[in-house]
Amino acid sequence: MDLDSMWFQQDGATSHTAHVTIDLLKNKFDERVISRNGPVHCPSRSCDLTPLDFFIWGYIKSLVYANKPTTLQELKANIEREIAAVSAEMCGRVMEN
Predict the structure, then answer these.
(1) Span 52-91, pLDDT tens digits
(2) Over the stretch 19-58, which tens digit does the pLDDT of each residue have?
(3) Which of 31, 34, 42, 85 is 20 to 30 Å from 21 by CA-CA measure?
(4) A Gene Ontology MF term for this entry (predicted)?
(5) In whole angstroms, what is the distance from residue 95 CA to residue 47 CA?
(6) What pTM was computed for the model?
(7) Contacts of 25 by beta carbon, 8 Å cutoff, 6+ apart
(8) How far is 79 from 70, CA to CA, in rounded Å?
C-alpha cells in the first residue's frame, strides 16, 4: 500500500487522539490525518465512520484471532498482515453498502 496518497481517519475517541498518537500519524501520513486533534478536523458523528466501525474492525479482529496467537509477536504479525490485506476495493464496497 502506498501511504503517500492515503488518508488516515480517526474515529474521534479521545484515547485515540492523544498528541503523541497524532504526532505518530502525522509522521506516517503527513497532513493527511482526519482527527479531533489532527491537521484536518474530524466532524462529529460522521456517517463515513459507521461502515468502518461496524464492519472493518470486527472483520479484521476475527481474522487476527483465527489462529489463536499466543505471543505478542504473533498478535502483532497477524494485525499487520490482516490490515495490509484490506484493499481499497473492499473499503469502497463497504462504503457503498
Answers:
(1) 677 888 899 999 999 999 999 999 999 999 999 988 888 8
(2) 888 888 888 888 888 887 777 776 666 665 566 677 888 8
(3) 85
(4) nucleic acid binding
(5) 10
(6) 0.52
(7) 8, 10, 33, 35, 38
(8) 13
